[in-house]
């Protein structure tokens, strides 16, 4: 990603004399929003001059957060909600499994635990819908008009998560398909592998859906961009639009050593979507489910401002160590 500040069309350090007149008012508002956001939590840490991590529940923080102050959301939430509940985290940490299963070892290599989403009961599925609707309703209030949300899911649960976001009033604007070889699916029927050598219970999963949503614009996209600095997606270059299929292999050992979170997303992928999320490179990117602060680190590497909430003390501590290391990581 190199030195991203120089790629910004309208960076905070840019020569202001070349900027269109409306840009100054967007910059001023973004500046005051940033100050308000940084003061919005009792317990938080300034990871850098441009990144703040809040210890707390996302829904509670969103209830108290200033209206129309966040320009984009990029997040990898608890897909099935239950896997990050306290009781399942306690089981994961003590190696007892629960909803987290250890995938079969491959080529003698030990695999990291993965949450099992095929075991969700109908009550848990209802909980998932209610939870994501509650999150989306609050994001709608806190986002500026035209603000985008990129939210990760998986092929088993994305229809429910994305539907809850639409029901809350966010516009669906497509999906990013991350092409990634996973260890999910592809197994033969349990206990009868030899009997059914040519049968898989499910397809081996090779992609990850990221829903793209937007808070409705005020007027046209151009009008909204001039007032709020949001409404569109930042292009890769003047010639090349942002595209919705991105191949990116699983997070590698090098990155996992810097941030040993069970759901760590790779910087190479995150930096591409975080970059697209702020069309003018101005504003704040918020991650409600910050984990190891990988989204915040991607924003830092791009020269963007960012804010995260994380309610688990261990991950909150982990994020403080991981953030500068992930942000400094050089990726292709
Ligand atoms: C899938 S992980 C995100 C991992 C992150 N993408 C990374 O690369 O490190 C989801 C995170 O959300 C946190 N979480 C779950 N529910 C939350 C809530 N209601 N408020 C804040 N954080 C929450 C979990 O503790 C977990 O760290």
Structure, described:
- The protein has 332 residues and is α/β, with parallel strands linked by helices.
- The protein has a single domain, classed as Rossmann fold (3-Layer(aba) Sandwich).
- It has ten helices and eleven strands.
- It has helices at 22-38, 58-64, 86-93, 122-142, 158-167, 221-228, 253-258, 267-277, 294-302, 313-328, and strands at residues 44-48, 51-55, 70-75, 100-101, 114-115, 143-152, 171-179, 207-214, 245-247, 284-287, 305-310.
- It has a nine-stranded mixed beta sheet, with helices on both faces.
- Strand 1 and strand 2 (51-55) form a beta hairpin.
- Helix 2 (58-64) packs parallel to helix 4 and helix 9 (294-302) packs parallel to helix 10 (313-328).
- The protein starts with 21 loop residues before the first helix and ends with a helix.
- The site of S-adenosylmethionine (SAM) has 20 residues, from helix 2 and strand 11.
């Amino acid at each position: 990603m190199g030195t991203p500040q120089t790629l910004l069309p309208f960076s905070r350090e840019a020569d202001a004399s070349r900027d269109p007149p409306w840009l100054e008012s967007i910059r001023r508002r973004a500046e005051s929003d940033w100050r308000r956001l940084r003061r919005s939590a009792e317990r938080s840490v300034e990871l850098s001059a441009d990144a703040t991590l809040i210890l707390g529940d996302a829904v509670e923080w969103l209830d108290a957060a200033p209206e129309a102050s966040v320009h984009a959301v990029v997040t990898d939430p608890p897909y099935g909600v239950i896997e990050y509940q306290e009781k399942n985290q306690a089981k994961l940490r003590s190696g007892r499994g629960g909803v987290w299963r250890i995938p079969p070892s491959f080529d003698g290599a030990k695999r990291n635990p993965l949450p099992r989403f095929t075991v969700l009961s109908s009550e848990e599925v209802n909980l998932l819908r209610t939870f994501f609707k509650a999150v989306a309703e609050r994001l709608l209030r806190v986002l500026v008009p035209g603000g985008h949300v990129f939210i990760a899911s998986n092929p088993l649960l994305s229809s429910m998560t994305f539907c809850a976001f639409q029901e809350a009033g966010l516009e669906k604007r497509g999906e990013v398909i991350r092409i990634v070889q996973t260890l999910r699916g592809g197994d033969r029927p349990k206990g009868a592998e030899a009997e059914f050598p040519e049968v898989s219970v499910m397809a081996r999963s090779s992609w990850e859906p990221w829903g793209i949503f937007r808070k409705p614009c005020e007027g046209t996209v151009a009008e909204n961009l001039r007032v709020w600095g949001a409404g569109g997606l930042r292009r890769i270059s003047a010639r090349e639009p942002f595209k919705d299929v991105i191949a990116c292999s699983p997070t590698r050992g090098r990155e996992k050593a810097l941030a040993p979170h069970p759901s760590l997303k790779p910087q190479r992928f995150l930096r591409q979507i975080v970059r697209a999320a702020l069309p003018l490179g101005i504003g704040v990117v918020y991650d409600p489910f910050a984990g190891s602060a990988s989204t915040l680190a991607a924003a830092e590497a791009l020269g963007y401002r960012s804010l995260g909430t994380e309610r688990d003390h261990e991950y909150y501590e982990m994020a403080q160590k991981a953030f500068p290391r992930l942000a400094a990581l050089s990726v292709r």
